[in-house]
Every structure is written in structure tokens, then in C-alpha cells.
Fold this sequence. Notes:
disordered C terminus, mainly alpha, three-stranded antiparallel beta sheet, single chain, Multidrug-efflux Transporter Regulator, Chain: A, Domain 2
Amino acid sequence: MSDLDIAEVAQRAGVTAATLRFYEEKGLIRSIGRRGLRRVFGEGVLERLALISLGRAAGFSLDEIGRMFSPGGTLDIDRGLLAERADELEHTIRRLSALRDGLRHAAACPAPSHLECPTFRRILRAAESKSLARRLPSPRRTV
């Protein structure tokens, strides 16, 4: 495979040329030269863009993703950070699953009024307590 100009990379990676320029500015990818006025990238850029896309899908910031590449360009992912993100995703999945189940119950609940349904009231109390918890200041650790 030969070198790819910015338009080819954008098309194959499913991102805009502006995104590629931004990623280059942030140090996430590197062009290897120019063909006329267009940046040219080596074939490895597509794999790197796939890694960036995967990181973004997992919720990592571009700065966090940038730290996963060593200065020499090799991949150096902090496994502890991956485990933390997996734990966060697991928590989010449980929360969203509970929300989905509550919505399904509310949609099919035979009670004349949702407020007469014990299950719906329990869901409402849980939502109220979580809302209150988000408004309270978080405890700060002192070192």
C-alpha cells in the first residue's frame, strides 16, 4: 500500500480532513510530507485512527488517548486505566439497565395511576435520592 493523501485518509477513516488536521495538531497522528498542498500520511495512520476511534467510543479524552502513544509512536496503554474505564462502563450499564427495566414496567404497569404502583413509587424514591445526592457537595479527601 502506498502513502495516502489527506482526502483518502479522511474517506477511509470516516472522519473529516479538519478532524485529521486537528488530530495532527494535538500530536495524535503525524503526516509524512506533502503532495502539492495536501498532507500525506503513511499507511499506519489508519490503524492509529482506529485506535483513536476505539478510545473515544470507550469514553477516553483525546489527551488520555494521546498519553497511550509513546513519544516513538508505539502503543503504551495503561492497563489499570483500561480496568478503571471498564468498571465505569459496568456501572453505567447496570444503571441504564435498571432505568430501562423501570421504563418498561411503567409502560406496562396495570395500576390505574403510576403513583399507585409500589414498583413505580420505589423507582421514584430511588431517582429522588440520586438527584439529591448529585446536588450535595462531594466529600473531599484531605492528604
